[in-house]
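TA notes, week 10

Several of you asked for a full example with nothing omitted. So below is the full record: structure tokens for the whole chain, then the designed sequence directly under it. When grading your own attempts, check the secondary structure regions first.
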């Protein structure tokens, strides 16, 4: 059975509690993995790691950010089969729904934002005929 860890500070780490409850597949009632029983201590660790990482990320060029987001989208697409099975088991949904909607949408979101970060800013963006995405871009800059 797979044991899932938290991803904090660029590493897979166990929950502070050390507890891993079973993850039950809704469609079958069977356990298919163990998930971290994370609590506020884990959240505090994640927030601290994010604050530590932010200055370097803020200095990363838009081109490099775009490359990294594209790499994530490509990895999602390359792992479609395993991600489809995992999403289906986790949510108790048909494989076809995970394969045709959820996993492609995850990859498409990363592809969209890798382009948007460099080229396009708008409040809404059509995602084919199936969805409409809304984006809110905020800045702390004050314009004169």
């Amino acid at each position: 059975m797979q044991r899932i860890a938290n991803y904090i500070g660029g590493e897979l780490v166990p929950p502070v509690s050390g507890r891993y409850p079973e993850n039950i597949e809704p469609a079958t009632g069977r356990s298919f993995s163990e998930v971290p029983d994370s609590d506020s201590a884990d959240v505090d660790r994640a927030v601290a790691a994010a604050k530590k990482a932010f200055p370097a990320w803020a200095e990363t060029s838009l081109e490099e950010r775009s490359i990294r987001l594209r790499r994530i989208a490509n990895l999602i697409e390359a792992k479609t089969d395993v991600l489809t099975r995992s999403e289906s088991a986790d949510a108790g949904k048909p494989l076809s729904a995970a394969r045709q909607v959820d996993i492609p949408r995850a990859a498409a979101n990363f592809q969209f934002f890798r382009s948007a970060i460099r080229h396009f800013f708008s409040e809404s963006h059509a995602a084919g005929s199936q969805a409409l995405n809304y984006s809110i871009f905020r800045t702390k800059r004050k314009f004169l």
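The chain has four helices and seven strands. Use that as a sanity check on your answer.
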